[in-house]
Amino acid sequence: MTELDALADGETSSDLDGETQHLKSMIAALRQALEDAEAERNSVRQKVRAAYEGEIAELKATITALRDALEESRHEGRAAAERALAHSAAEIAQLRQTVQALRDAIEGLRHEHRQEIQRLNAAAQDEAAQLHAAARALRQRLEEAAFQTQAQKQGAVAVAAGEIQELKTTCQALRHELDRARGNTA
């Protein structure tokens, strides 16, 4: 080996050492940059996580408050429906009592009317027995009384039928209101 070859080998060896040294320092710098980037990424991740955890806690609190408000609203709705139902039931009971009282009154009127008719017939028969001589006049009066009685009967029946129809209409209207009230609460 000549001096030139030795010198070239020395320069090559020195260049390789320098390049190796340069590569090592570059690798170390890259490692440091990578570690710094990873540390910064972890720091940003922790900041983001902390921000999201705060928002999540806020959202959980909002959800809990809304859930409580919904539950209270449901409870109030149920209570209002129960009050309305109780009120409707009381009204229905009162209306039933009124209807029964009206039926009793109608029946009482019918009974009184029958008694009155019986009394009138008895009186007419007594008069017919006592005044046999005036039979024709009494027959005419009796026919008139019978006609009036029939007219009164028809009038009373018409009044009773009208009252019954009014009661039926009232009951139907109340049933309709009750059904509508039940439909609104349901």
Report on this structure:
The protein has one domain (3-185). The chain contains two helices and no strands. The chain has helices at 3-130, 135-185. The longest helix is centred in the middle third of the chain and has 128 residues, at 3-130. It starts with a helix and ends with a helix.
Task: Tell me what portion of residues adopts beta-strand conformation.
Answer: under 5%
Overall pLDDT metric: 82
Shape: rod-shaped
User: Can you count the helices?
Assistant: 2
The largest pleated sheet is described as: none
The Cα radius of gyration reads 55 Å
> Could you name the ranges where pLDDT drops below 50 across 5 or more consecutive residues?
none
Describe the structure concisely.
The protein has about 190 residues and is mainly alpha-helical. Helices cover about 95% and strands about 0% of the residues. The model has no long low-confidence stretch (mean pLDDT about 80).
